[in-house]
Design brief:
By secondary structure, the protein is α/β, with parallel strands linked by helices. It has two domains: 10-176, VC0802-like; 179-364, 3-Layer(aba) Sandwich (Rossmann fold), CATH 3.40.50. It has ten helices and 15 strands. The longest helix is centred in the C-terminal third of the chain and has 15 residues, at 302-316. It starts with 9 loop residues before the first strand and ends with a strand. 41% of the residues are buried. The structure holds S-adenosylmethionine (SAM). S-adenosylmethionine (SAM) binds at residues 186, 188-190, 213-217, 219-220, 247-249, 252, 272-274, 289-291, 295.
């Protein structure tokens, strides 16, 4: 689609903590200009709004922005403002035209759905905010469109978070956050967007050897393939990565096989990450999410496990290689890597399963 003066901004919903990484993906992959980012939301402009926006991997959902504010009063008088902004601010005709170009309308009368989300204590209910949006939308699209709760062709969203609100048209569907490869789920399985953020932070290069020594259902390995399978070298050949994974639990290895098999060639084995069947200095990137304390039979096991795994990761990593690790117990990991020739280059604080956690990036010197 050719850029027009009237092209709207876009916004992405992201897992809290991943705003910066998502902003980097938007800037680097789509040439986007980040306008603003707040808890769980990144607002940006693109040179062209086209289907490539749906290829973002660190975002949970993407939208065309109709309007946004940071100035809600939390009082019931906000409702009239929500209605007015929805009615007057956006060029809904233009937004719908861009939406249809990215998500072609199915045959027949389109279906639509209105969604309102509200975080924080306000002097009105979520349903009242939804009604205010509905009133503002009156007459903005053909009356023949049918409301639908599930799989609607067009979704109008209003998200209120404290004093901020954004309203827009959803461009993505559930496959952006859930992906299509994930058939097998394990209780401690990572969100694909979190795994994608770890893969971005690993800064992969062609022909590298990548390993997840505690791969669970294989989400990180699947995201390695997803992030690189369309990349080409100058001669048109692919990146030709060697992707390896394993887990102590054979059932988890089978789950990983089922998730990763179709997406790219991956060597998977049952193994103990404390004693990997890999040569010294044979790996360029270790990307992994070791168990959190509460996933072990006793949280006291975490220190010795991290210690043994870190020594083994260091053995297999080449110098100049990187380790990207997601843990809840950052102190246990820091102690485990003390004395190794590893330099921490970045830390991204996130929440996983309601718990504080961090992605730590190390470079082996
Ligand atoms: C938090 S889960 C990883 C989840 C994975 N990233 C995913 O998305 O499904 C941690 C994994 O470490 C595995 N694990 C625990 N101790 C291990 C060891 N010594 N060697 C290899 N894997 C181990 C567990 O079986 C579990 O699958």
């Amino acid at each position: 689609m050719t850029p027009g003066k009237a092209d709207p901004a876009c916004y992405a919903m992201v897992h809290p903590g991943l705003e910066e990484v998502a902003g980097e993906e938007i800037a680097q992959e789509l040439g986007g200009d980040i306008k603003k980012s707040g808890l769980g939301i990144v607002v940006f402009r693109l040179p062209d709004i086209d289907r490539s926006i749906l290829e973002l991997r660190t975002t949970e959902d993407v939208f065309l922005l109709a309007w946004g504010t940071d100035q809600l009063s939390y009082r019931a008088e906000d409702l009239e403002r929500l209605r007015r902004w929805t009615q007057r601010e956006p060029d809904w005709g233009r937004l719908l035209q861009i939406h249809h170009a990215i998500r072609p309308k199915p045959k027949g009368k389109p279906t639509y759905h209105l969604v309102a989300q509200m975080i924080g204590v306000h002097g009105y209910r979520r349903i009242d905010a939804l009604k205010a949006m509905a009133q503002g939308l009156a007459g903005k699209f053909p009356a023949s469109w049918k409301p639908a709760d599930e799989n609607a062709a067009i979704e109008f969203w209003l998200t209120i978070n404290g004093a901020s609100a954004v309203c827009g048209l959803r461009l993505s569907d559930r496959t952006m956050r859930h992906r299509t490869y994930k058939h097998e789920h394990l209780p401690a399985s990572l969100r694909p967007t979190m795994a994608a953020a770890m893969v971005r932070l690993a800064d992969l290069k062609p022909k590298q050897v990548i390993v997840d020594p505690m791969c669970g259902a294989g989400t990180i390995l699947a995201e390695v393939h997803a992030a690189t399978r369309s990349r080409r070298l100058h001669d048109g050949s692919g990146w030709n990565l060697t992707v390896l994974g394993g887990d102590l639990d054979a059932h988890h290895v089978r789950a990983a096989e089922s998730n990763v098999r179709k997406i790219g060639p991956t060597r998977l084995s049952p193994w103990d990450a404390r004693c990997l069947p890999l040569d010294d200095q044979s790996v360029d990137r270790v990307i992994s999410n070791p168990p959190f304390g509460k996933q072990l039979s006793s949280p006291g096991e975490i220190g010795p496990l991290y210690q043994a795994v870190a020594v083994e990761m260091n053995r297999v990593l080449r110098s100049g290689g990187k380790a990207v690790l997601l843990v809840a117990d950052v102190d246990a990991l820091r102690q485990a890597v003390q004395g190794l020739p590893w330099r921490r280059t970045r830390q991204v604080n996130v929440r996983v399963l309601g718990q504080r956690a961090a992605i730590l990036v190390y470079r082996k010197d």
